[in-house]
Amino acid sequence: MLIVTTESVPNREIHEVLGLVSANSVRSRNIGRDILAGLKSLAGGEIHAYTRLMSETRIQVREKLEASAEAMGADAIVGARLMSSDIGQNMAEVYMYGTAVKLR
Asked: For each successive 10 residues of the chain (104 residues), what is the average pLDDT?
């Protein structure tokens, strides 16, 4: 599945617009990670456990988005956007959306 942030695909023509596709995942941190992250934040630097958590979440959301588009019969997703936000103190949401299309 081709996913692009642009509104078109270079050297391809959009034959049919199938509609909006979206996917999200809400993840929570755990107490062990929070304690280690708190200690790490005192010294500064990257908190690898959170980086890994968010990276895995982005992959999961992209896979869900692709599955939604494939279920619609799409060849590609154009105008893809990825966002994240905090939900409460210990949770974060990753949300991705775009337009499912058929290409020529």
From this structure: 96 97 88 55 72 92 98 98 88 95 96
Specify whether the CB–CB gap between 100 and 72 falls below 8 A.
yes
Q: Residue 65 and residue 54: Cα distance in Å, rounded?
A: 16
What's the full length of the chain, in residues?
104
State the Cα–Cα distance between residues 28 and 59, nearest whole angstrom: 16
Task: Give just the sign of the alpha carbon dihedral 48, 84, 93, 38.
Answer: positive
Burial of 6 (0-12, 13-18, 19+ CB in 10 A): exposed
For 48, phi and psi rounded to 5 degrees?
-60, -35
Output the CA–CA distances (angstroms, integers) from residue 18 to 15, 97, 101, in the order listed: 10, 13, 5
pLDDT of residue 50: 81
Six-digit token string for 16: 């049919």
* Residue at token pair 């690898």: 48
Amino acid in the structure at residue 20: L
